[in-house]
Amino acid sequence: MRQGFPHAERGMIIGLLGGSFDPAHEGHVHITREALKRMGLSQVWWLVSPGNPLKARQPAPLADRIAYARRLMRDPRVVVTGLEAQLRTRFTADTIRRLQYMYPGVTFVWLMGADNLAQFHKWDRWREIMARVPVGVLARPGSGIRARLSVAAQIYRGNRVVRGENLSRRRPPAWVFVNLPMNDASSSAIRARGDWRRG
To answer: For the whole model, what pTM was predicted?
Structure first.
């Protein structure tokens, strides 16, 4: 494996949780732990993105966000990365394609909060993402109904996996919606309280 990239072996199941993490918060930690527990994942890689093409406001410097996320997420099964900057990919579909090429024999599962499923159809080549990897959708406060009625949920309703079935063993397209105890932490609320980069 190339220097600076996470280690993964054939047969491992890696959850990918992408986002700006501006900053990371307990909600990210919560859905990561739940995904590890409920989806049979070997690890979860946080993909701290250089920027978000769907947001006008650009995030804090990448190094600051990665450092803060590593202080917050202390679990040996979770790797906080800046992979998209290393790979020079801008869109999730490209990131997944490159990782699948670099890690043959590894199963990747795309993880997202329900708030992202609600607008997933606006992502670049979102159908390619569905065709490449299983998708685990984790409940987030106020997003459950919107997510279940979203364009993506409607188009792929026949590919929804029942809770308890092993998502990673299903060929894409396959997705699951996981209800879980809610954590209403939000990055925007943390930013509004002041500079989280201190200390």
So the answer is: 0.87
